Amino acid sequence: xxxxxxxxxxxxxxxxxxxxxxxxxxxxxxxxxxxxxxxxxxxxxxxxxxxxxxxxxxxxxxxxxxxxxxxxxxxxxxxxxxxxxxxxxxxxxxxxxxxxxxxxxxxxxxxxxxxxxxxxxxxxxxxxxxxxxxxxxxxxxxxxxxxxxxxxxxxxxxxxxxxxxxxxxxxxxxxxxxxxxxxxxxxxxxxxxxxxxxxxxx
Length: 202
What we know:
Elements: H1 8-26, H2 33-40, H3 44-50, H4 54-82, H5 87-98, H6 102-114, H7 119-140, H8 144-163, H9 171-177, H10 181-184
């Protein structure tokens, strides 16, 4: 049977998909490009034809993750505005639902940590926060204090999801989870427990 050859752009998307899943499990430094090439079903050499350096691939993964966040929040804001609802609340609810995607949550957490040591990731994250801040201000009309509160609660939602605080019946967990419902619709998403995989020997 004849096979359909993938374009370079389609292959890039396949590589980013494979890289996002592996990086979510292992982090940026601990994910070898050879493992990503295997996951994408291509040769190691071809991966570097499409992404000349590992930093290029890492940035593409961060941008993919952040673009998904922006898309989900933009759509939620548009739907809320069309229904005469509060855009900021809708955006927050959509974001917390997005955190149910374990790869999105973990790539974000890895990216925040990597920003302290990897300039390329730092710049990609800055660009994302600039875009999301502009989007939030533009669609909600919120003032600076409200925007800071919105982002602060979003970061708290990341912590709640990563630590699965809704699964803890303790006073300190209730303190952290009890004040996030009003603006963000509740941080109800929790991170699935990662499945241990064998160490890569490549």
